[in-house]
Amino acid sequence: MQRTLAAEVPQKLGETVFLQGWVNNLRPLGKLCFIVLRDRSGLIQTVLYDRPDLVKDLKEEAVIELVGRVRPDARAPHGCEVEVHELTIIRVPVETLPIQVNRPHSVLNTKLETLLTHRVLALRNPEIAAIFRVQAELIHGFREFLTHEGFLEVHTPKIVASGTEGGTELFPVQYFERTAYLAQSPQFYKQMLVGAGFERVFEVGPVYRAEPHSTTRHLNEYISLDIEMGFIESEQDLLALEARLLRHIFARVQERCAKELAIYNVTVPHVPEKIPQITLAQAHEILHKRFHKRTSGDLDPESERLLCRYAQEELGCELLFVTHYPKEKRPMYAMPDPENPALTRSFDLLYKGLEITTGGQRIHQYELLVESIKSRGLDPENFAFYLEVFKYGMPPHGGFAIGAERLTMQLLNLSNVREASFFPRDRTRLTP
């Protein structure tokens, strides 16, 4: 008999169905027992009559399968329930559950560390599972839009000889007789593939940052949604592309994740045709004049929150581009602004008070790139594999990267980015 999913049961009134899943709730009442079954699609109420021999062995989170008839019942969730004719207990828990998974996460108020320690059980909770259904649609929308725009999905090495940022935030790996590193980003390879003739590429993959942070916004391994595009005129082409990309992504989530968005009581943001943008210098001025906060250099977390508050109150938008970062605050490949070479044609995108994107136009001239590498105290010979493509005709290009977990976190108003990672890797956690 073909399996029916819980979500399909309301369309099968009067029919006999075969269900498989976990016991989410168990409620014996005399000669009958209500069993709420949970599968990947959701929950459905079933009722078992006159089988005390089976009920005595049942436990919450037991794996079962059953055959029963669907009947209408206005009192039941979804307006129907399944009257069980046959029930098979496949497996029952061998120990007491360390956490409850059948009540709303918001009601349980379990500490995040406990949920992460017992992650597989926590992921059974429909409220927690909803995070990753939304995230999957965010990523699917990313792929769908870019493929339609003529981008090619690529897969670049995650074991590399050196960092793309030229810094020390690298995880070393013993690679036979040599020391290699986990990739901080696919940046070099994205650019190389643009120069190889693919012009437009994107990647969905893990990146690794050996940053000893223990904050609500940092992970040491996360999923990066990377884009690189050739034949651009300036970074403004990238800002326009990201606006269209986010509109598509959020529209897809709104269409396909209504139930999950309702669980978190959120709506997708309105993405205008042109997302508001300010320069970093203007950002510092706004922070000083409006919020009496004196700042310089890069933006700290409080500044990001205040700027998004300004954008929401004055510009009616939850999103804000900050552009023209100083050269010393950006990587060696960032294109200097011709009007002020001390600045770069780079940007960050802030969403609800958090940076979710970094990007910009890249240097495409070989001589200028070599000069930039040297200015950082680095040896161009160490980047020979990367520089090769720039010797033989590199188009103007640029790109950006979105952190999938941060985007998910901000959309759903989660309090910690680790909630948006299946099995997060942070300063102290290597398991599960």
From TrEMBL:
Coiled coil: none annotated. ATP binds at residues 209-211, 217-219, 355, 403-406. Keywords: Aminoacyl-tRNA synthetase, ATP-binding, Cytoplasm, Ligase, Nucleotide-binding, Protein biosynthesis. GO terms for cellular component: aminoacyl-tRNA synthetase multienzyme complex; cytosol. It is found in: Cytoplasm. One of its GO terms (biological process) is aspartyl-tRNA aminoacylation. L-aspartate binds at residues 165, 209, 358, 362. One of its GO terms (molecular function) is aspartate-tRNA ligase activity. Gene3D superfamilies: Bira Bifunctional Protein, Domain 2 (3.30.930.10), Nucleic acid-binding proteins (2.40.50.140). Aspartyl-tRNA synthetase with relaxed tRNA specificity since it is able to aspartylate not only its cognate tRNA(Asp) but also tRNA(Asn). Reaction proceeds in two steps: L-aspartate is first activated by ATP to form Asp-AMP and then transferred to the acceptor end of tRNA(Asp/Asn). This is Aspartate--tRNA(Asp/Asn) ligase. It comes from uncultured Acetothermia bacterium. The lineage of its organism: Bacteria, Candidatus Bipolaricaulota, environmental samples.
